[in-house]
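# nightly structure sweep
# worker-07 picked up a monomer target from the shared queue
# config: single-sequence mode, recycle default, output format = structure tokens
# input follows
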Amino acid sequence: MTSAGPTWDQYANPAQAAPAPYSPYAPSPYAQPATAPLYPEGLPPVAPPTGVFGPIQQQMRLLQEVKFRDAWLAGGNTGNQMGVNDVDLTATFAVPAFYNQAPILITPGYGMHFFNGPETSPPPPLGHDMPPRTYDAFLDAGWQPQINPWFGLNVGARVGVYSDFTFVDTHSIRIMGRGLGVITLTNELQVQFGVVYLDRNKIKLLPAGGVVWTPNPDSRYEFLFPNPKLAHRWTTVGTTEVWYYLSGEYGDGAWTITREDGSHDSVDYNDIRVALGLETISTANLRGFVEGGFVFDRQIFYRSGIPGQFNPSDTVMVRAGISF
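# output follows
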């Protein structure tokens, strides 16, 4: 007797693309793994089940998700302060893959970043100047096939134009990617390992992976670098689940810009964000979140090296978003 592997139910668990800023992980639906574990009874190991994957149970929905997010980082244009407002809008579409029942997720997206500061002193070209606005326009493709009942992949690529749009050249086009293996050891434990390619001026490649532990249906702990998230279900109101979480993130991005002295350059703005938040998940696929956090290890780094790295002061963040 053969046992069927996981089936892909697009209505029960809508597919999601890697968010912006670029991450190797799609947002978690806070559900138990849909795969068959490698060791379902724990150690000693048992042979994984054989058989073929079951068919797609329901017709695939083309438009999977529309998402809007806004993040506000406090700061001004005096001293080493710098305020930032990040706004992004994405839409995710699912198309059938030639191999495996998992769909290919296509996500066009657009983002804007508004900078307040830092103070440009001394005068250009020696000052650490940022343009008032930068923009992201990208197309993301992701695929999460299940190779066998206990091993899967999370792979994807993103290409886009990242610029203040006063200056666009080949450095404005950034290509990012991710590649991870996913091993489901037990119903509660999953291991992920791989890399994420960021294509920034200072950091190009980062290792990615870690452990996902789901001890019960009310808890999901994603000990994943560089985007950990520890979540617990607080309550359920009608058909809407309310979760609280602690998360970490490596932001923000890189853009080609025109400096205040008229020269052209490419600049990174990097930071580390830690946040506490609330997230709601309804059976109608409507989700929302609000969070507050702390932003530190902030860096402005120019590809030209003129001037050297600048570190804006630490700040606080408020971020909210909705998807449907």
